[in-house]
Design a protein that fits this description.
globular; 14 strands; Rossmann fold; three-stranded mixed sheet; homodimer
């Protein structure tokens, strides 16, 4: 089987690729596992060498819209080499989309549609996993969110990123209904702790406020300490993406999106977990510096998720933020000693 | 004030134009009424001469995508001549979109986005009334609709038309949030009785089964007699579109769509109303000929609407289908004698 991961050089994309390469086989839509022959990583940047040196990995570097635009169906096979599974993770992130409306429309709407068109042109009905986001939900004074979000809550996005992801869900749903793909709309929670560098996501600080202080570096927290957030560890997030492929159509259920499970916590509790692992010195490296632009987006997102459909698929949230920080710490130590 | 109506040569577009010309003035967003200086009707076909001969009416004939594509901002002023209000009624209809996926995407998604971009380029934040549809709601075995739909019910479209209209709502919502337009997402119910000819809408027969027999012509009804439907007369529908412009932003409320009020009835009761006005001979002209393709779409739509936001704006549903048929009959007679 051939697999494509867009955004394949991103943190989640690379981690997903490693998990799949390690497993060496994947069950699609309830069928027995098949061997993974190749994984194509499409991204604007290149992945790390542990991946690019793997004989099963193909790397395609470029802008997804440009790669897919004005190509013949034969050329599109270069991007989608008879793939059975496409993980569409590539996206412009929330902060970027709010600052640059056109970038968001191109990266999140146009690229998703172009990729779906390429799948349709293949004619082989691949499994298409669309990484949507918690950001489709937005609280506002004129339309408050319910206290707990479930799989049937009406999304009322309060950011361009949220709107664009929700439009992506609609496209995936209709391409699935038409039989062009097997659609899997998956709403990711805020992933924490992400390794690496800060990015343009409004939620970036929710990893940075742990990652940077543990490395002895200052980090800012732009929201009040009692801000409640819905988080998922990288491991649980990858588990959800893979489960979406494994589930049969009836197990998966409706074409609307599945909310992944989330751990509800507050940034104050996150800071307390940091202190447990890094000591008071690490906790003091958090600079509680309010940023209205970031705060407006992040506090509009819900914090309590009743992820009934995900639960039905056997997916569970992380048990505690302490455990998430512990796992992050162990992985960091392992990668430093490797 | 200048007004643009896309789909302006369609039945609703022409009726809307006549109402506005008769009123001669319009209140925008809670402000005192201003005189209507011009109405631009954009459509692929030309409107009737009572409109095209009116000195206040400008007619632009062509495909909306082509008119708006690859033009300079100055050229776009030709389509949107410093307009304060845009009624975006142009669309490919449900049956067409189901038969021709690409046509639907072009006509309903691309054209809506191009028009919104033109509004953004104007920089004057016009009121943008988007005619969405009841068809965003779709019942299915794996995701049954609630018995009664309200303004916060999650749309789960079961047709490409429904998906495309729902994507249009999201675009309008975000263009409004960004301050490019004043957005007014309005979900129209099935309009009955439409005069004129049948069209490619799956709901076309809901007018035809009254209109044709009253004119002594056979008409088919492709769904079972106990099929429940949510209808609105042409008059009530136009009233809803105009009210959307008049309402101030706070009166209008959230950027999500407002469901217009609907009369819930069944096609059996509709046939009974026909018999009251046209006699048994007219009722016998209905050919009860099931059509699975049409039936699948129409029976997936909800029939009971709790239109709370519309009610808050003073909008009410039609009182009975008998009254709708009576009004249609009166209008037909008036136009024949005019």
């Amino acid at each position: 089987m051939h697999i494509v991961i867009t955004g394949g050089a991103g943190f989640l994309g690379q981690r997903l690729a490693r998990e799949l390469l390690k497993a060496a086989a994947l069950s699609i839509s309830g069928e027995p596992p098949s061997p993974i022959e190749s994984i194509t990583l499409v991204d604007r940047v290149t992945p790390l060498t542990d991946l690019s040196n793997d004989a099963r990995v193909r790397v395609i570097t470029g802008d997804l819209n440009q790669l897919l635009a004005s190509t013949t169906p034969a050329d599109q096979q270069v991007v989608l080499p008879s793939s059975s599974v496409i993980f569409h993770l590539a996206a412009a992130v929330s902060g970027e989309c709010e600052a640059d409306f056109d970038l968001g429309m191109r990266s999140n709407v146009d690229a998703t549609r172009a990729l779906l068109e390429s799948c349709r042109a293949m004619g082989t009905k691949p499994v298409f996993v669309f990484a949507s986001s918690l950001a489709v939900f937005g609280n506002s004074a004129e339309q408050p969110l319910p206290d707990v979000i479930d799989d049937r809550t009406l999304p009322t996005p309060q950011s361009s990123y949220g709107i664009q992801k929700f439009i992506g869900e609609q496209l995936v749903a209709d391409y699935a209904r038409k039989g062009f793909i097997r659609g899997r709309n998956v709403r990711l929670m805020t992933v924490s702790v992400r390794p690496g560098k800060p990015n343009g996501a409004a939620s970036s600080f929710l990893s940075g406020m742990i990652r940077e202080p543990l490395a002895g570096v200052k980090a800012s927290c732009p929201v009040p300490p009692d801000t409640a957030v819905a988080l998922s560890s990288p491991g649980k997030t990858i588990e959800g993406l893979i489960r979406a492929v494994q589930a049969s159509d009836p197990e998966w259920g409706p074409r609307t999106a599945v909310n992944l499970p989330a751990l509800t916590t507050t940034v104050r509790e996150m800071a307390q977990s940091l202190e447990k692992f890094g000591g008071p010195a690490a906790a003091r490296l958090i600079d509680w510096a309010p940023d209205p632009a970031v705060s407006r987006i992040v506090t509009s997102w819900p914090s309590k998720i009743d992820a009934a459909r995900a639960r039905g698929l056997g997916l569970k949230p992380d048990t505690s933020f302490d455990d998430i920080v512990a796992a992050y710490h162990t992985e960091c130590t392992a990668s430093r000693t490797a």
